[in-house]
Amino acid sequence: MSKKHNQLINFLSNQEQEYIPAVQIAEALGVTDRTIRNYIKEINEKSNQISIVSSSEGYKLQTDDVSMLMVNETELEETLLDFEIVQFLMTRDDYTTYDEIADKFFYSPQTIRSRIQKLTMNMEKMGIDVAIDTKVFKGIMLVGTEIQKRVLLENLFTSISVKKEVYQDFLTQNFSNWVQEDVIESILNLVEEINIKFNLNLEFLMYKKISVQLVIMISRIESGNHVAIELSEEMDFKDFKEFEVANAFCNGIHQYVIASESECIYLTNYLMSLHLDLEEPGVENKDLQTVKKIEQILWNIEQAYQVPTYSQKKFKSNILNHIYRIIYPVSHNLLIYNPFVKETKSEYFFSFSIASNIALKIEKEFNVEIHDSEIAYLAYHIQNIFEAQDKKRIKTIILYSRNYERTKLLSSKIATYFNELEIYKIEKCSQDYAFHENCLYIGIDLAFTPETEKDIIMIQNGLHNGEIKKIRFFLESQNSIIERANIFWINENNPEQAIQHLLQSNQREQFIEAVMKREKMSYTSIGNLVAIPHPYFEMQEYKEEVIIGINQKAMEWGNEFVQLIIIYLPSDDVERNEYIFTEFFQKTKNIKDVVKLVQMETKEDFIHCWNQI
Q: What whole-number distance in Å separates Cα of residue 139 and Cα of residue 95?
């Protein structure tokens, strides 16, 4: 299938089986609705597993299990060729010409050259530290560590969609030149046994990944290609539960090869990268220096976000254990497995942003590279903290000019009507009254209007329906940040241009570097044509602000297409920021609503449309 065909299928698979009009799909993919109809016709004609059905309301994907779809013959052929080229290059210790590879796989040298160029780009996208070295008159050679070569080969093979009932035949067919058929059958039985013994609850993709790694391990050890892994005196990998599982695998393949200690430690790290469902993931004898570094990171995060990642023992212990366990797999550039990155990034966007900052600090402290899959796991921990905490109420100070007792009675009434308010103090107001930071003020029947920039609601003594409505309207208006947003209609080609344009248009150029720093860590596109760029909480003083951009057409933004850009400059109130990010997600989680928003031509129409969602 073409790239656009796959984007169309992926888009429809995320729409909860709703019918989507062709014009909305076209907006999302950046093509015309006529092109969408042609794509749908081609997909329905070429695929036996996928059917896109139509109605008066639009189109939807019809399939029993999207995750188990087989790719079509063209895509399968291309993916398999990449795998076969890497597999072949791993067996060669010298340079190989394009002609040799072409003869081996019955393709033209031009086709092989083109595939290798695309393969090189894909390796960079995956973040795998392997390169294809090219020398004139000599050819090409795969360069990189043994660990990275194995990770690359396994990822290429497991990216091919195949149903479980034909997996053994598929594995045998593609590794028959590396190991015997009976060895593969034995490995698959071993994975099943270990899965049951340790109650791992392996889903099919993890089952594939482990079995392929074991096949690769046996073949590479037999051919004298061993992993080189530095064994730390401070770090005893036997403390990890995964070591017990890895050791069981090594003992299970003992009849074929002898796995060295380094091989067993590599497999331990690999299993840690999969986040297996183990009952006892904690580590008792931790390296104190590593622990101190992680604690410092968690302390810094708490200072920036006022989220108890350090001060509350339970949260600190959970996150510290998690980071401690993933540092070593990540240090060997083993790709962390997480099938729910996209959902986490969109639904828990604020937690994901805090997790991105944690990841940035881990990268600096431990000289490793953290990808979105691991950031999503960190985001789960942050989200658990938010959900475990009681929501803070707004600190409120009641001001009065006379009659304290009656004011006290009215303050009790106000607290009854408005659960979100915490009546913090009742104070007499004077001309020189000193207003505090981060408090809401309610002035009851004051003799004068105080001169202040602080939030203050002036009401009369009776607290009638009109006064209650005034307080409610004020609280609701505080939550509606879009009303105060600046909106620009732009025509840019990439995220950096769009962010610069919007910040410059709003005289906020000083935030360009901070926002782009966040983008480089992890793109802020969340699907459904939406991106929410924002800076990390760091040294600058922030004042809450929203800048909205509607691009003329959808642009590529990471792995998504984006047309609605919502730049958020945060406040110094963490709960407020959590609320805002949640509102952004709730308002944009349906593609139909987003398509309506990007069709608005004035600020008034946009705000009205937003408020109707």
A: 5
> Helix, strand or coil for residue 278?
coil
- Tokens linked to 13: 């698979």
CA dihedral over 414, 584, 513, 385, signed as positive or negative: positive
Residue closest to 146 by CA, chosen among 262, 276, 274, 271: 262
CB 33 within 8 A of CB 25: yes
In tens, the pLDDT along 301-348 reads 999 888 999 999 999 999 999 999 888 888 888 888 888 888 899 889
Tell me the C-alpha distance between 490 and 483, whole Å. 20
**Span 505-538, pLDDT tens digits:** 999 999 999 999 999 999 999 989 999 999 987 6
3-state secondary structure of 598: helix
Instruction: Identify which of 426, 416, 330 has the alpha carbon closest to the alpha carbon of residue 373.
Output: 330
pTM score over 0.70: yes
- Calpha distance 487→505 (Å, rounded): 10
Q: How many other β-carbons are positioned within 10 Å of the β-carbon of residue 42?
A: 15
Are the C-beta atoms of residues 269 and 334 closer than 8 Å to each other? yes
Per-residue DSSP letters for 182-218?
Answer: HHHHHHHHHHHHHHHHTT----HHHHHHHHHHHHHHH
Cα gap 110→113, rounded to integer Å: 5
Distance CA 610, CA 546 (A): 14
Phi (first) and psi of residue 20, to 5 degrees:
-120, 125
Q: Cα–Cα–Cα angle for 148, 152, 156, nearest 5°?
A: 170
Tell me which long-range contacts 15-21 makes (C-beta under 8 A, separation of at least 24). 15/60, 15/61, 15/591, 17/60, 17/61, 18/60, 18/592, 19/55, 19/57, 19/58, 19/59, 19/60, 20/58, 20/59, 20/60, 20/591, 20/592, 21/57, 21/58, 21/59, 21/592
Strands (E), 281-436: 394-400, 421-428
528 touches 594 (CB < 8 A): yes
d(CA 227, CA 244): 19
Tokens of 430: 């004077």
For the four alpha carbons of 338, 341, 347 and 349, in that order, the dihedral sign comes to positive
